[in-house]
Write a structure and sequence with these properties.
The chain is of the alpha+beta class. 29% of the residues lie in helices and 37% in strands. Helix 2 packs parallel to helix 3. It is elongated, with a radius of gyration of 23 Å. This is YigZ family protein.
Amino acid sequence: MEKKEDVYRTVTKPSPEILYKDRKSKFYAEVHPITSEDDVKPIVEELRKKYHTANHVCYAWQLGTENPTYRANDDGEPNNSAGMPIYGQIQSFDVTNVLITVTRIFGGTKLGVGGLIQAYKTAAQMALESAKIVQKTIKAQMRLQFEYPVMDIVMRTIKQKDLEIVSQKMELDCELVISVRLSESEEVFQLFDEMHAVDVIMMD
């Protein structure tokens, strides 16, 4: 049985803001952790307020691990000259659940499409280099339902396998939600499944 890939790279807090300059244009870039697409708009709006003289707040984001979704936004720059170069850096640093913003204040000299692509790419790269990238593990959750007498063996197994208990309800009928590394989930599921008097359900 092949092991499932269960780690990914991301950031847990915003990166320091970096400034990249090209022919008097200023590009301010930041990396932000996001958990859903709804996180994007408030961050972008905050930047528009902060840099009220900015001509463009361009960005790219990616969410998810197995089939990630992404979006790239040029915010009025020529097509694919800003959002896609930023997104390219998300791919090359292999990070997800991140938003990278690059805010441009025009310096009076046009950079041309090639110059813009280079500037947005470099700013995004510098922001990622300054960000603290961490490796996270993808977890699966299972619900265990059993009667009180089998509590002992269930708890012993959880301890042996070093599993994390997310929530528990200990009454006559007990219910535990446990968190398991994705790559070990099938093995753990089987373990509980084979136990007499334990119902185990994989949660989404």
